Amino acid sequence: MTEQPIASTMQLSDDIDLITTPTVVTDPISVKAKYTDDKQDTSLPHPIFRAVDQRCLIAAKQLKRYSAADILPTDTRTAPDLDIGFGQKRALKALHTALDIKASGYHVFAAGENGLGKRTIISRFLQHIAMDAPTPDDWVYVHNFTDPRTPLAIRLPAGQAVLLQQQISDLWTQAKKRLSQRFRSDQYQSKIEAIKNDTHQKESLAYDALNAEGKQYDLALTFRAVDNKAMFVHPSQLPIEENDKTTSTASKSTSTETTEPRNTATQSDYESELHGFTQKNHMQKRLSQLTIALEKLEDEANDAIEALHRSIARRALQPLFAPIQELFADLPAVMNYLNAIFDDMVTHVEHIVNGDDEEFTPAVLATTPSRYAVNVMVNHEPESGVPVIFEDLPTHLNLLGHVEQITQLGTVTTDVSMIRAGALHRANGGYLLLEASHVLEHPYAWQGLKRALQSRKIKLSSLEQMLTLTGSLSLAPMPIDLDVKVILLGEADLYYELLELEPEFDAVFKVRADFHDDVTRTAEHELALVAKMADIIDYANLYPFDNSAQTTLLEHLSLQAEDQDRLSLHSDRLIKLLHESNRHARLNEKSIVDASHVVQAISDMDERSGYLRDLYWDELKNGQQLINTQGEAVGQVNALTVVSYADSEFGMPARLTALIQPNIGAGEILDIERDVDLGGSLHAKGMLIMTSYLRALFSQHHALNFSASLAFEQSYAHIDGDSATVSEACALLSALANVPINQSFAITGSMNQLGEVQAVGGINAKIAGFFDACREQGMTGQQGVVIPMANVSQLMLRDDIIAAVKAGDFSIYGVHTISEALTLMTGLPIDTMNKKGRYRKDTLFGKVLRRLMIWDDNQDTGEPIEEKESKKKANKKRKSKRRKKKDKQKQRKSENADDGQ
Q1: Better-scored residue on pLDDT, 29 or 329
Q2: I want to staple 31 with a disulfide (CB 3.0 to 4.6 A). Which of 104, 122, 407, 742 is the partner?
Q3: How many C-beta neighbours within 10 Å does residue 555 have?
Q4: DSSP 3-state percent helix, strand, coil across the chain (nearest 5)
Q5: Cβ 348 vs Cβ 360: under 8 Å
Q6: Could you tell me where the Basic residues compositional bias lies (predicted)?
């Protein structure tokens, strides 16, 4: 039974019916000497009690199992090498099965309690395998010149990713330098000038020919000053310097015109103007045709320049690309990428040389423009084996990778160089370890991991788009093939929950590897655990531990396992104890750790977690906690409980009382803890089992004409577990029979419907709790505990308790049945029967049946029980007097007859 800390205290009420109130006998008379058979000497215990006492008493040598120091190394420096799979052969066999099967879904869930060292064991096991496995390929992302939004993923042999990245970086540096030199050379400038001069000459000839044609129509070709646009105008509209040649001709024409008649001149001007407009319009059309021809001429010139640029770029770049192409000639994907870079550099050579485009300019802290950058996602050293990765923060981004973005002047941008690898990328081709609870804590992490393992591809997706439902543009990198074994670490309860709540969980994680909490305690396993200690000591650079310290640690590990024949495998507890023991050796200026340092470390750990325990003992000292470790009481038992709070756990006795209400009900038992929602389902189950047992005992002999109630006094927190079933049965039967129970004893145990006592948990803490209470209130030599016999093999008691048992100051009994427990607690025989198959009157069950009958008779007559008892005694006295009187009369008659003779 587990009980929470006591919040406050409460005194028992005094106004309870005499029949049902627990009767406390203040005189501490031993039960062994009080309850006897009527036919036996009252100064001696009942023979049945003596037999049970002798049979159930546990010897001191059974209370703890000690380790032999002579079979252990002198100190941990001479310990054997650590076996990685010590104590976990079942789990490692499951791992082997999963690793040997390459089919989809054969990933592993490693189930076991936290602190067992699952991650350390699996990591070492996988690293041992990984060393001999072929190294997986490297992966890089590069710019896709065909579809820039979809970067290309390229697979390369191990070690080649960084080589490609370095080669492309050097290529860019050399290409930039060589192209700049070529495009600034005199040869390049002369070729450009030649192209431009040829084009200019052709343009001049075309304009001269068109100008000559225009002169036939008295039109001159000129260029407008505003926009340098070509146009035809009358020579008179030309600037003065252009019109000097036509001045005299114009003067003659003017003087001739003035001598003509007025009406003739008017008609001639109109016709001349109309004719000039037609001619000008014609020449403008010819000018438009020439403009188109000149544009084609310019295009041809530009094409010639571009052809020159490309020709120069090809000749300049080809020698730079040749070594790289030769280096990666056996990788088609890389060759295609190099060809794409070559074509792109040739096409955009002007931007490269001029640096007038951000795409061809390296970013801050970068040596290569993102357009030509090789983003290494995974890189492995050749012959280094496969990776073993543990991701301690398995978010969606950290698992599957992500694409970063930057904001410049309010604009969000990204490129191939901002793609970041996830844990799946790093573990690709190897093994990935994850804490299952951590994966489930982060949104979309489990969904992303499951999708990747099912599809066997790593596809980067924008989590922001998934969460915000926006349509913002982002990169969609090409998926990468995934070949990985994932090992989830978690407790067994989480595994069952995932099986129930996640329909596809079993399809993805088909192998379960169970890690054991403890191992059998044999000499071989003790030596293996010493090897584990030595490994931890070497890793943490602690002082060596001698064999006395080793034995103390092994005994403590048995205590942690709560079994003499088992050793706990919890690595966290062992590591903590090793470090604290090492601290005490250092403080004592010792260079080796011995048993005293380990004992001091254990004591310190108990003290740190004993705050609540000390509060309880303070209440016990002050009388606030009502616990009797002497005397006797009816319907009252000291039950052994364990208080668990956070990392603190300690045992303590709790007073359990039973009250009987005769002639009310039909054997119902009120569980007060359950009715006020302070009792758990297991506690309620124990109550129902006990009720069924009592009904089976007495209902065949007499109707159960009573009701009862049970409660843990001064308990105000949740109670669960069935370890109080035996103590509840003892308290109830004591109240039914009105037989006192020895308060020098405390009891714990579960029971079944057949009255058999079953094992319970926390047995060592429970015994220690009652022993401390007895020592606090004074040892009498009569005190002890009654526990299930099945728990005896789990005893790893403190040395001071064992010393008290050896001295006879404290006793520990192990029982198989409730009858043995009641005999020890009451001193009475319990269920012996007479020849008629009925319980004997001097037995506990006989007394219970007698009280049931008395209650029934009292209900019929309506007389109080005390009056009925007094009447019976008076009738017996009268009958006895009558028999004595008749006997005397007979004796006198006989004497008179003899005298007459």
Answers
A1: 329
A2: 742
A3: 21
A4: 50, 15, 30
A5: yes
A6: 873-891
Average pLDDT (421-431) is 95
Decide: 682 and 759 in contact? Cβ < 8 Å.
no
What is the helix (H) or strand (E) element at residue 898, kind and residue range? Answer: helix 865-900
Residue 35 has pLDDT above 50, yes or no: no
Contact 860, 705 (CB under 8 A): no
Rounded average pLDDT over 579-598? 95
For β-strands 648-662 and 636-645, DSSP reports them as: antiparallel
Cβ–Cβ < 8 Å for 643, 717:
no
Question: Are 730 and 691 in contact, with CB atoms under 8 Å apart?
Answer: no
The helix (run of H) or strand (run of E) holding residue 311 is: helix 262-327
What average pLDDT does this structure show over 662-676? 68
Paired residues of 486 in beta bridges: 432
8 A C-beta contact, residue 778 and residue 744: no
pLDDT of residue 864: 56
Nearest Cα to Cα of residue 395 among 350, 332, 440, 451: 440
Q: How many beta carbons lie within 10 A of that of residue 650, not counting itself? A: 24
Q: Is 65 left (phi over 0), alpha (psi -120 to 50) or beta?
A: beta
Q: Would you name the residues annotated as active-site residues? A: 723, 766
- The pairing of strands 706-712 and 648-662 is antiparallel
Looking at residue 123, its pLDDT comes to 94
Structure tokens at 196: 């431009």
Q: Read off the pLDDT of residues 265-284 as tens digits, 9 standing for 90 and up.
A: 455 555 555 555 676 676 77
Q: What is the rounded (10 degree) CA torsion for 70, 71, 74, 78?
A: 170
Four-residue CA torsion sign, 431, 432, 437, 440: negative
Predicted TM-score (pTM) above 0.90 = no
**N- to C-terminal Cα distance for the chain?**
83
Helix (H) or strand (E) holding 451, with range, is helix 445-455
**Beta strands 757-758; 668-671: pairing state:** unpaired
Q: How confident is the model at residue 716 (pLDDT cuts 50, 70, 90)?
A: low
- The secondary element (H helix, E strand) that includes residue 154 is strand 152-156
pLDDT above 50 for 30:
no
